[in-house]
Amino acid sequence: MASCSSSSSVAMQLLVGVAVVLAVAAVPASARRQPVRLLLYVHDIVGGAGQTSVVVVKGPGPANPSMSPGNNFGDTVIIDDVVTEVTGGPSLSSAEVGRAQGTYMLASMARPVFVVSITVAITSGPYNGSSIVVAGRDDTSEEVRELAVVGGSGMLRRADGHVLWRTAKVESKLHAVLELDVHATVPVPSPAAARSHGIHCS
């Protein structure tokens, strides 16, 4: 009887092991993820030549004491900012690789805090034609802010992660340059999806 019990135990362990292997093998490629790293400059120009952002809602106030006069709680800005590569530095003369489109709102009555919701549409490089969606709290009094990657499209579909967001340079009172250091993951594409995007899968 002891021998039969031992044999049954071994058989059960083998069956469990096979089931685990089959379960892992059955996980679709869409459930596995691969890293994405992007480093970009975003040029927010609030007035003058080449303006890329416009106040669409003037907040009723009160005025924000941590900012220059004229900045009210609830101010909402819509943007179509130029995105450039980092190899040429934080200069508007660097190669354009996309546009950052969306809104930011002054969301604190006392601190320079904005709530941001933007889509970065990429128009050059390996992710050409794709986009990534960023949202979160931007406290401009902090050197580095962390915002969330909440989605994407194309090769960045279902992107998830975070962005380290900082003010790289203030060109003038009308032109600020933001650095977006994107740390994200996306699902590993299936062979069919990879071929449709021109990706080689080994």
Task: Give a verbal description of the structure.
Residues 19-24 have low confidence and may be disordered. This protein is 15% helix and 46% strand. It has two helices and nine strands; from the N terminus they run αβββββββββα. β4 (96-106) and β5 form a beta hairpin. Strands 1-3-4-5-6-7-8-9 form an eight-stranded antiparallel barrel. The chain folds into two domains: 1-31; 34-196, Allene oxide cyclase-like (AOC barrel-like), CATH 2.40.480. It is found in: Secreted, Extracellular space, Apoplast. This is Dirigent protein.
What's the helix and strand layout?
Layout: H1 2-26, E1 33-45, E2 53-57, E3 76-84, E4 96-106, E5 113-122, E6 131-139, E7 144-153, E8 160-172, E9 175-187, H2 191-196
Antiparallel strand pairs: 1-3, 1-9, 2-3, 3-4, 4-5, 5-6, 6-7, 7-8, 8-9
Structure at a glance:
This protein has 202 residues and is of the alpha+beta class. It has helices spanning 2-26, 191-196; strands at 33-45, 53-57, 76-84, 96-106, 113-122, 131-139, 144-153, 160-172, 175-187.
SSE pattern: HEEEEEEEEEH
Task: Estimate the mean pLDDT confidence.
Answer: 86
In whole angstroms, the N-to-C terminal distance is: 51 Å
Largest sheet: 8 strands, antiparallel, barrel
| Helix count from the secondary structure assignment | 2
Extract low-pLDDT stretches.
Answer: 19-24
* CATH architecture type of the largest domain: Beta Barrel
Helix/strand structural class? alpha+beta
CATH topology (fold) name of the largest domain: AOC barrel-like
CATH superfamily of the largest domain: Allene oxide cyclase-like
Q: Give the domain tally.
A: 2
- Label the overall shape: globular
In oligomeric terms, what are we looking at?
single chain
DSSP E strands, number: 9
Top CATH class of the largest domain? Mainly Beta
User: What's the helical proportion of residues?
Assistant: 10-25%
